[in-house]
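In keeping with the milestone schedule agreed at the kick-off meeting, the structural modelling team has produced records for the first pair of proteins. Each record is given below as a sequence line and a structure-token line. The laboratory manager (R.T.) confirmed that both were archived under the project's standard naming scheme.
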Amino acid sequence: MIGYLTLGTNDLARATRFYDELLALLDAKRAMETERYVGWSSGPQAAMLLLIKPYDGGAATPGNGTMVALAAGSRDQVHEVHARALALGAQDEGAVGPRGESFYGGYFRDLDGNKLAVFTQG
């Protein structure tokens, strides 16, 4: 259902380094790239995550209530991705653990303040 998501950045090079390393843990690779944006995907039919400099030239700001959730294949992978995000400079927004009966995840803010979750179900 979702084709792609975009997150704004004020420093594309810095954000690209962060996401190159982080998304590699989820088997995502760069799929598109220009001087304004970089996109990663785990396959041709999978959704894409793009980092973009805002079209209007204004500052990129995180949306209030906006969050991107990255699907992991296991609880171990949730821990790995969350820990790597923090090691790369992300801010912890909620430690990894169970939430409800079948959701297991953790939350962080990237280098531009965008909120992300990494999770698995079951």
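The second protein of the pair:
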Amino acid sequence: MESPTARAKEATAKTNAWATFTKQFPNANKTQFGAQISIDEKRSITAEMFFFQCREMKAALGFAGMEGFPY
């Protein structure tokens, strides 16, 4: 999408995704994650958080001392 309105909606979706992620995982190493924008056939814009590949996912989320993995 090229219009200023579309870019503003993308930025808002990305900001909301980061805010939700940060609220849920306050100790996460945010350098290991990124927000990806998706636009569906109805032009709805959503953002999802993705984990960049690294050695220790639990450590990146701030759960290094926990046994298992939180659901």
